[in-house]
Amino acid sequence: MNRDRAERHLRLAAEAGLRRARALSDDGGPGAQAVFSECVLRLNGVAMALTAVGALDVDAADDIMVQFQAALAVRRRLQPQTAGPLLRRGRRARVMAAAGAGATAGPGAPAEPEPAEPEPPAKPWRLWPVGRMLPFRDEFVAGELYVLALLVTARRAQALTFAPLRPAVSGGIFSGFPEPFARLVAADDRGTAYQVTFQGGGAGLQWEGELNIEPAPPDGARWLELATGAGTPRLRIDLTGPPPTAEVSGQPQDSQPGEQLLEHAAQQLLATSAAGRIGDTRRQAYGLGDVVTALEAAGALSPFSPVPGYLATICERLGIGNHGITAAPSARLPGPWLSVLAWSGRRHRPPVHDGTAALSAVLPDVNGARVALGGLHTRSQQTFLHLVVAPPATSGDRPDGGPFSYRDFCCWLRDDTSQWHVAVPGTWHGETGGELAGTLRVLPPLGRDSTRLTVLASTLTGRVRAEVPLRWWAAP
Amino acid sequence: MTGVPWWRALPAVETWVPCGDGLHPVRWQDGALTLPAHADPEGEAVLAALGGERAACLEVAEAWHRHDDDLDLLAVGPRGPDDDVGVSWDEVREFRENRLGSRFARRLPGSGGFGAGLFAGTGRPGSRPMIPAGGRPGGGGLPPGPPPELAQLRAERLEMLILLALGSAFQQLLSGTIAAAWADGGLRAGEAADHRPALEAALTGRLAPAAKAWLGVDPDLVEADLAEAGRAGEHSGWGELGLTGSRAGARLRATLPVGWLATVWAPGLAVVDGHLVVAVEQAAWPDATVLAVPAPGRPPVRLRVRAVDGETGIDVGGPGHSAQWAHWETTDSQEGGQR
To answer: What is the percent of chain A where pLDDT is above 90?
Structure first.
């Protein structure tokens, strides 16, 4: 890859965007939105692509975007964002250095960060499939807390959960935080009590997240019991058996960086179209031609790569015409792409049955991130794969969501009927620099008739494969 | 650049800026910015540093000198005669007072800035932040007032607006001044290679509309490479121009020195009588002798040109306005080639 060529391409794309903006209407008119989508979003897509493949520094791209927005603003084509991108830490550090600020600590100087607590030595993760349910109720809300898996790391244990809720009184209304979650307690066979906090959230009557159990249960603990308070039902998790091991393997990535990024883009298109959100699909396809051109210009994608043609095929099959990809649609598509695309095109999509499956697999590092797959649930024709991620240690100046935030992250699942599924980041939460828990949304949804999954996850640097059995145990 | 100072094809220009209770002139002539209403600007600057009130004129001059090699400002500035970069002094005041409603102070609605596009986490289908559980909001309160780095960035933005509010003639001059700093003989010439993408984009962005006026070429199909220092035209002495066909249309590829922006583009000389001007041999405004290419692939000819009916000049435009780009016409040509 060539950084100068990447930067030059982005700057020339900004020049072209400025010319387009000048040809559109004045600020404040109906064309303002067109300037935003025609110029800012398109250039932003190019900047994101070039930074995602490592062809351009985030700060350099950020500077160019800021200049571009300022150029639009002084021509009355846009109201510039004055704070957001300017506050990126890389730029802030440069400004501070240029201003000579921060050299001495004073009343006006920014506070020094607290020294970080030393990281405990890396310890293998232990992951047990749980597959148990804890009912709860108070005067406002009732429900079931489904515990899919328990992951024990060096510092804590994390129980991956989801919970359908309902008002405690028939015909009642419930909204807000379910208070039983705030009363959760845990204890082990030695009588040791643990602090439990629910981390996650939900919309309406379905919540999902993790129970953070601190500290981590010691190696010798035989079981861990969860409850929502004294006198309430208890859920016991057996820790005596060895955590099951999954069949996993990893290998270095052999695709070009640009191809990996375009596969990610294809997954986004397939996911939104499979979810019936064709408006989102069109929005995502818009400007893809710019991205392909930029990746080629930066040397991140061979001009002979077939992948732009694959993308053009998807767009053509989905009836999307404004993608801007100049490559001719290809007659052939990779198997997973074709499988999901074919499902999207079905007039009749057989319904899948609700269910909850336990699975446990700790994957080899994904781009330096540790990933544990903890379960799957299907409800209302939507399937979510629950997982925990420990992002790699980064430079520390940007939040890292691990695979949840990698713009090159791709995940495919194949069930035992050979139907492929795309898995795209859904929701996630956690601490910056710490472990994250969340879900990947699986499309098309998986039903209780699937007994085994092949998981293929990849990033710019590596590919991971896991074969995991599915143990469906409830139908909430 | 040739031995001719880059600004010799430019006239003296004056504009008026709000200063104190009135309007004061700011003048540019022979490459230098002056403040005729302030007899001792250095002394005033010292007084201001000691706590006295800083005159707005001084602020203009300081901003000018701080940004006279600023490639960020070159990226924002005008691309050609029909590129209206309009910032008013009222808008500068609004920005300074951080008024809500200023078009330079508001956030872009719906924009996450860089990071909110197709490949952004926040733009993903179905991605949504979780509701914090149990009312445990993350992060503490903000300290009062803007953090120092934000204040510094706002100050930079204010200076940019002040300089653009001087009007189109001064915007041209500043662009030329910046380009001259990075051209052969300029103070930043030694660093030009490290800023090649920004300089090439600056060249392309200004050559593209000129090429459209010259040949009718689609500006999106124009690209300019930077002629390396000391090699500006190993072949020709000024650079190279090539026109090729492509599926999208005729594509113009140019190799020019960054000094072209200062000596040719800034005085508005880019296209004269159907020729693309590639170098200025001699100049004393309103007259100049230039090398100009009649068509790609043909050698340049020497043209004697004169600025006519341009409104450029002192006392033109009135308070708050500066002059327009000059219009040049050929007074004599030496077809037959001059390299």
So the answer is: 39
